[in-house]
């Protein structure tokens, strides 16, 4: 019922040239494959280049971050309208690296989520517990507070067009992955929290990606879990072959 969605988060990697060739290879390797929604999130500096490469394909473009403000004196920031201007359809919000290095909070992510929707961008809202929180047995409470904080005030249409990415912080870039059972437990809890906020029917429409060391070797098993609807891929998205393998494992 929910179409799988796999997004590549390139983080602070790839020059314009490199981004162009990675996007081109992904486009060629994917060919006519449309059973999975595919999103590429290059750094801002490569958005235009990647946008041009994928313009006549089913691949969609996303930003990795944005400001909640529409314009003004915010040095270094970029707005939802600017992302739309470059033909972005998605934006990653509240990634754990932005929470850790740029002080992003649930309240701030909530403002951005609303601003993204107001501009017609679909937000990919990231949540996930830190290692010490998992060890303290408070994973579900942590993720629940993040989901409630980040998604408050959305209307029906906005809920349907929101993607949640569950990314246990201890699994990001570490080679450690949550087991499919561990991930499924948290995904089911996220869906239950969304159901309490917005009702069962809407909760069933929300796609929840897993992220954190997802690779060709573990993607199929993770995504086959009932509440895992795709992946947000970091390291493995920097190689066309492994990214496309993950996309094809998602059906
Ligand atoms: P990773 O990153 O796949 O390199 O663990 C995932 C992410 O941060 O989105």
Overview of the structural elements:
An eight-stranded parallel barrel has the order 1-2-3-4-5-6-7-8, surrounded by six helices. 45% of the residues lie in helices and 15% in strands. It has helices at residues 16-30, 47-54, 80-85, 96-101, 106-118, 131-135, 139-151, 156-160, 180-198, 200-205, 216-223, 240-249; strands at residues 5-9, 37-41, 60-63, 90-93, 122-127, 163-166, 207-211, 230-233. It is globular. Helix 1 packs parallel to helix 2 and helix 7 (139-151) packs across helix 9. With 251 residues, it is an alpha/beta fold. Strand 1 (5-9), helix 1 (16-30) and strand 2 (37-41) form a beta-alpha-beta unit. The structure holds 2-phosphoglycolic acid.
What percentage of the residues does DSSP assign to strands (E)? 5-15%
Low-confidence region ranges: none
* Helix percentage range: 40-55%
CATH class: Alpha Beta
Query: Shape, please?
Result: globular
Number of helices: 12
Number of distinct beta strands: 8
Q: Radius of gyration, rounded? A: 17 Å
The CATH superfamily label reads Aldolase class I
What is CATH's topology name? Answer: TIM Barrel
Widest sheet, order of strands: 1-2-3-4-5-6-7-8
Distance between the termini: 12 Å
Topology:
Blueprint: E1 5-9, H1 16-30, E2 37-41, H2 47-54, E3 60-63, H3 80-85, E4 90-93, H4 96-101, H5 106-118, E5 122-127, H6 131-135, H7 139-151, H8 156-160, E6 163-166, H9 180-198, H10 200-205, E7 207-211, H11 216-223, E8 230-233, H12 240-249
Parallel strand pairs: 1-2, 1-8, 2-3, 3-4, 4-5, 5-6, 6-7, 7-8
Helix pairs in contact: 1-2, 1-12, 5-7, 7-9, 11-12
Bound molecules: 2-phosphoglycolic acid.
